Amino acid sequence: MEKSTKHASQSEATQAKLIAAAQALMLRQGYAGTTVDEICAEAGLTKGSFFHHYASKEAICRAAVDAWGAMGTRLYAEASSDPNADPLDQLHRLFDIMISFTTRDEPTLCMVGMMSQELALTNPAMRTVCAGHLEDWTRMVVRMLSEAKRVHWTAVDFDPVRVGWLLNAIWQGSMLIAKTRQSPEMIRSNLELARAYVVGLFANPPAPARAPRKRSA
Asked: Is the pLDDT of residue 211 over 70?
């Protein structure tokens, strides 16, 4: 049992190294510009180790995108870690988390967004993978918006799904444009504008929490 556990741990460590290497290279030079040899060199592993775990470059790209999505899910979950928090406070916390990404030393990039841009029109399988992660993010925001709409008076009527996708587009699009402008400040500015837009959807100041409207008979 101990030997089996040790082997599984070593296998997981090898996969983690390969995924981290694939993420670093593909974020820097794209999917097409990255080779299996480069991934192995970056990870400090042999091609035998690579192909023991992954059948192809596409297979590790999928694993890298899934790992990136899982990491994002864990980070974004902090926004709603308190189930009793006001949903508007959760949305503010979400914006704070996104803005915090722009203050790090490395560029603000998204593996899901970058692989979507490069592969969505040519690789149906990867398009499906990336679409799933983008939908997960939007679903999280839609839940917060829907709950905020349920408990607060709104200044204007709005569709949480449409607003959720708008915020996703602002987030992903800002990272894309910031790559060419080399300007994390622009991302922060766009996110603060998006925050102001969301705040403007609700009565200012927000009315006290209210019970859900009763359906008429």
From this structure: no
